[in-house]
Specification:
single chain; about 200 residues; mainly beta; 13 strands; about 5% helix; about 35% strand
Length: about 200
């Protein structure tokens, strides 16, 4: 014990010396005359095990975020109860609940992530301060409203006569992969790779 009444002992590897879990530290002191004190004790917990990487659930139902889903987008998954999950993309954190679930709400995905592909990255840090490996999930943000599709001339002159009324083809152009809906009949078609 130094002149200020303080002492310290360095344990080279606490996990090896104490093992994992609860440990009761016990110390005594012996004065210059050889008198030994009662023991002073303190309960500590050794936890050096890294938690498993958290999971990320499917985002927006299909991992594609559209304009109607961009505001208050919920990103969720599972982890170790009590651990703190970090979404690195936005620096947001949340605590895993007692059922092992977590969720983070991103107020505006288009602003936070931009348009196109985005790799979400999350880690979790347990109550002892051990941080897991990262989990990643690739999502696509597309909040740009497509231009209105075009409708080509119907039957060559936009008049449908008695010989043309059966199996009438209505066609046009649009964004590749988009679904076109004909309002009158509620029929749909997918725009092909040529934009038709």
């Amino acid at each position: 014990v130094d002149s200020n009444g303080n002492w310290s002992i360095t344990v080279s590897n606490a996990a090896s010396s104490f093992g994992q879990g609860a440990e009761t530290l016990s110390v005594t002191q012996t004065d210059a005359a050889g008198n030994i004190s009662a023991a002073g004790t303190r309960e500590i917990t050794i936890d050096t095990a890294l938690p498993d990487a958290p999971t990320i659930s499917m985002v927006a139902g299909n991992d594609i975020v559209n304009a109607s889903e961009s505001s208050n987008l919920v990103i969720s998954g599972t982890g170790e109860a009590g651990a703190t999950v970090l979404l690195s993309n936005t620096s947001q954190t949340t605590v895993v609940d007692s059922n092992g679930n977590w969720s983070i709400t991103v107020s505006d995905a288009a602003t936070s992530f931009g348009q196109g592909s985005e790799v979400l990255t999350v880690t979790q840090t347990d109550t002892a301060g051990n941080t897991s490996a990262a989990t990643q999930k690739t999502i696509t943000v597309d909040t740009l409203i497509p231009a209105a599709p075009t409708i080509s001339t119907v039957t060559g002159d936009n008049f449908v006569n008695s010989s043309e009324v059966q199996n009438l083809v209505i066609s046009g152009t649009g964004e590749v992969g988009a679904t076109v809906t004909l309002a009158v009949t509620n029929q749909t078609a997918v725009v092909d790779s040529n934009g038709n």
